[in-house]
Amino acid sequence: MKHLLIVYASQSGRTFMMAESARRGAMAFADEVEWRVLPALQAGLDDLLWCDAILMGTPENFGYMSGALKDFLDRTYYPAQGLVEGLPFAVFISAGNDGTGALAAIERIARGYPLQRVAEPIICKGELTADALRACEELGATLAAGLSCGLF
Question: Which of 1, 11, 37, 73 is the residue whose CA sits 20 to 30 A from 64?
Fold first, then answer.
């Protein structure tokens, strides 16, 4: 059984809805992939070491990732050194602007672990749409499928 961690931060509920959509996509591979969906402030090193891939979600706050997701990355960075090299990851962002600042910050930190990006980020600009939720569902399914068939 492979493991997918979906870690997110949400204040308005939009990023939570994106995380739930990603989980629904991963459910198509429930026989091969187990998942955890956790708020960033509740996720920790044990969750990171448990997973075979991680999907991170954040709102864009002041052109940056949420403080909660940054906290998760700060708390796990040094203890995970040498233990998660090459761990597949992907990102979804609920953005009020363009989301590029949040994405750049996450990708910069991910290079330090180092993690391996395996899918294009989903950036939903403005109000959450049905298309954005479908894209998140596809992203969850993509990561679960990749784990299921051993692509990563």
Answer: 37
